[in-house]
Amino acid sequence: MAKRQFQFVNDFIFHQVAVNPSGEWIALGCDGLGQLLVWEWQSETYVLKQQGHADAVNCVDYSMDGQIMVTGGDDGKVKLWHTSSGFCFVTFSEHSGPVSAVKTLTSGQAILSASVDGTVRAHDLIRYRNFKTLTTPTPVQLLSLGVDPSGEIVCAGA
Q1: What is the pLDDT of residues 105-147, one digit of tens each?
Q2: What's phi and psi for 9, nearest 5 deg?
Q3: Could you tell me the maximum CA-CA distance found in the chain, to the nearest angstrom?
Q4: For the residues of 93-117, what is the DSSP string, one character each?
Q5: Would you put residue 72 in left (φ > 0), alpha (ψ -120 to 50) or beta?
Q6: Total-model pTM
Protein backbone atom coordinates (compact mmCIF):
# COMPACT_ATOMS: atom_id res chain seq x y z
CA MET A 1 0.00 0.00 0.00
CA ALA A 2 1.45 3.35 -1.01
CA LYS A 3 1.78 6.03 1.65
CA ARG A 4 0.08 9.37 1.06
CA GLN A 5 0.82 12.42 3.12
CA PHE A 6 -1.74 15.18 3.15
CA GLN A 7 -0.85 18.81 3.75
CA PHE A 8 -3.83 19.40 6.07
CA VAL A 9 -2.22 17.19 8.74
CA ASN A 10 0.49 19.79 9.28
CA ASP A 11 -2.04 22.57 9.87
CA PHE A 12 -3.85 21.11 12.91
CA ILE A 13 -3.33 18.85 15.92
CA PHE A 14 -5.86 16.01 16.09
CA HIS A 15 -7.02 14.09 19.16
CA GLN A 16 -9.07 11.52 17.32
CA VAL A 17 -9.64 10.13 13.83
CA ALA A 18 -12.56 8.02 12.59
CA VAL A 19 -13.32 6.62 9.13
CA ASN A 20 -16.94 6.39 7.95
CA PRO A 21 -18.35 2.92 7.17
CA SER A 22 -17.88 3.28 3.39
CA GLY A 23 -14.24 4.34 3.84
CA GLU A 24 -14.59 7.59 1.89
CA TRP A 25 -14.45 10.18 4.67
CA ILE A 26 -12.07 10.74 7.55
CA ALA A 27 -13.49 12.63 10.56
CA LEU A 28 -10.94 14.51 12.65
CA GLY A 29 -11.33 16.05 16.10
CA CYS A 30 -9.32 19.26 16.27
CA ASP A 31 -7.35 20.33 19.35
CA GLY A 32 -7.85 23.83 20.73
CA LEU A 33 -10.18 25.02 17.95
CA GLY A 34 -13.15 22.82 18.88
CA GLN A 35 -13.63 21.96 15.21
CA LEU A 36 -14.90 18.84 13.54
CA LEU A 37 -13.21 18.33 10.19
CA VAL A 38 -14.28 15.75 7.63
CA TRP A 39 -11.82 15.01 4.84
CA GLU A 40 -12.65 13.20 1.61
CA TRP A 41 -9.31 11.49 1.07
CA GLN A 42 -9.65 10.61 -2.63
CA SER A 43 -10.21 14.19 -3.78
CA GLU A 44 -8.13 15.59 -0.89
CA THR A 45 -10.83 18.13 0.01
CA TYR A 46 -12.80 19.06 3.11
CA VAL A 47 -16.37 17.80 3.10
CA LEU A 48 -17.16 19.51 6.40
CA LYS A 49 -15.48 22.04 8.66
CA GLN A 50 -17.71 22.93 11.62
CA GLN A 51 -17.10 24.72 14.88
CA GLY A 52 -18.97 22.88 17.59
CA HIS A 53 -17.13 22.59 20.87
CA ALA A 54 -15.76 25.35 23.09
CA ASP A 55 -12.35 23.66 23.21
CA ALA A 56 -10.63 20.50 21.91
CA VAL A 57 -12.63 17.74 20.21
CA ASN A 58 -11.23 14.66 21.96
CA CYS A 59 -13.15 11.88 20.25
CA VAL A 60 -15.28 11.14 17.22
CA ASP A 61 -17.22 8.14 15.95
CA TYR A 62 -19.60 7.32 13.09
CA SER A 63 -22.90 5.46 13.42
CA MET A 64 -22.99 2.08 11.67
CA ASP A 65 -25.11 3.48 8.82
CA GLY A 66 -22.80 6.50 8.43
CA GLN A 67 -25.66 8.98 8.86
CA ILE A 68 -24.52 10.39 12.23
CA MET A 69 -21.19 11.50 13.64
CA VAL A 70 -20.69 11.76 17.40
CA THR A 71 -18.08 14.02 19.01
CA GLY A 72 -16.97 14.54 22.58
CA GLY A 73 -14.95 17.49 23.80
CA ASP A 74 -13.03 19.16 26.59
CA ASP A 75 -16.16 21.25 27.21
CA GLY A 76 -17.89 18.13 28.63
CA LYS A 77 -20.38 17.98 25.78
CA VAL A 78 -21.35 15.14 23.45
CA LYS A 79 -22.66 16.33 20.10
CA LEU A 80 -24.52 14.54 17.31
CA TRP A 81 -24.04 15.68 13.71
CA HIS A 82 -25.97 14.78 10.54
CA THR A 83 -23.47 13.71 7.90
CA SER A 84 -25.85 14.84 5.13
CA SER A 85 -26.27 18.43 6.33
CA GLY A 86 -23.12 18.81 8.44
CA PHE A 87 -25.04 20.40 11.29
CA CYS A 88 -25.15 19.52 14.96
CA PHE A 89 -28.69 18.50 15.89
CA VAL A 90 -28.33 17.38 19.53
CA THR A 91 -26.01 18.31 22.40
CA PHE A 92 -25.78 16.28 25.60
CA SER A 93 -24.36 18.27 28.55
CA GLU A 94 -24.52 15.82 31.46
CA HIS A 95 -20.76 15.24 31.87
CA SER A 96 -19.03 17.47 34.43
CA GLY A 97 -15.58 16.95 32.89
CA PRO A 98 -13.97 16.50 29.47
CA VAL A 99 -15.38 13.69 27.34
CA SER A 100 -12.59 11.27 26.47
CA ALA A 101 -14.34 8.60 24.35
CA VAL A 102 -17.57 8.06 22.41
CA LYS A 103 -19.00 4.92 20.80
CA THR A 104 -22.15 4.28 18.79
CA LEU A 105 -23.99 1.03 19.40
CA THR A 106 -24.46 -1.28 16.43
CA SER A 107 -28.23 -1.12 16.98
CA GLY A 108 -28.11 2.58 16.11
CA GLN A 109 -30.40 3.43 19.02
CA ALA A 110 -27.86 4.71 21.54
CA ILE A 111 -24.40 6.14 22.01
CA LEU A 112 -22.00 5.82 24.93
CA SER A 113 -19.64 8.45 26.25
CA ALA A 114 -16.82 8.19 28.81
CA SER A 115 -15.41 11.14 30.71
CA VAL A 116 -12.66 12.13 33.08
CA ASP A 117 -15.52 12.88 35.51
CA GLY A 118 -15.52 9.08 36.12
CA THR A 119 -18.79 8.27 34.37
CA VAL A 120 -19.92 6.37 31.31
CA ARG A 121 -23.24 7.68 30.05
CA ALA A 122 -25.70 6.03 27.68
CA HIS A 123 -27.69 8.41 25.49
CA ASP A 124 -30.91 7.43 23.74
CA LEU A 125 -31.00 8.38 20.03
CA ILE A 126 -34.79 8.15 19.88
CA ARG A 127 -35.74 10.47 22.77
CA TYR A 128 -32.36 12.27 22.96
CA ARG A 129 -31.78 11.83 26.68
CA ASN A 130 -29.21 10.33 29.05
CA PHE A 131 -30.91 7.10 30.18
CA LYS A 132 -28.13 5.37 32.12
CA THR A 133 -25.02 6.45 34.02
CA LEU A 134 -22.32 3.98 35.00
CA THR A 135 -19.66 4.76 37.62
CA THR A 136 -16.68 2.94 39.08
CA PRO A 137 -16.54 1.86 42.75
CA THR A 138 -13.59 4.21 43.26
CA PRO A 139 -13.56 7.54 41.37
CA VAL A 140 -11.16 7.48 38.41
CA GLN A 141 -10.69 9.47 35.23
CA LEU A 142 -11.96 7.35 32.33
CA LEU A 143 -9.97 7.65 29.12
CA SER A 144 -11.12 4.84 26.82
CA LEU A 145 -14.31 2.99 26.01
CA GLY A 146 -15.25 -0.29 24.36
CA VAL A 147 -18.54 -2.06 23.77
CA ASP A 148 -19.41 -5.50 22.40
CA PRO A 149 -21.58 -5.77 19.26
CA SER A 150 -24.71 -6.60 21.30
CA GLY A 151 -24.26 -3.45 23.41
CA GLU A 152 -24.53 -5.40 26.66
CA ILE A 153 -20.89 -5.35 27.74
CA VAL A 154 -19.29 -1.95 28.24
CA CYS A 155 -15.64 -1.52 29.23
CA ALA A 156 -13.98 1.75 30.21
CA GLY A 157 -10.30 2.23 30.92
CA ALA A 158 -8.58 4.67 33.25
Answers
A1: 988 899 999 999 999 999 999 999 999 999 988 889 999 999 9
A2: -60, -30
A3: 49
A4: ---SS-EEEEEE-TTSSEEEEEETT
A5: beta
A6: 0.78
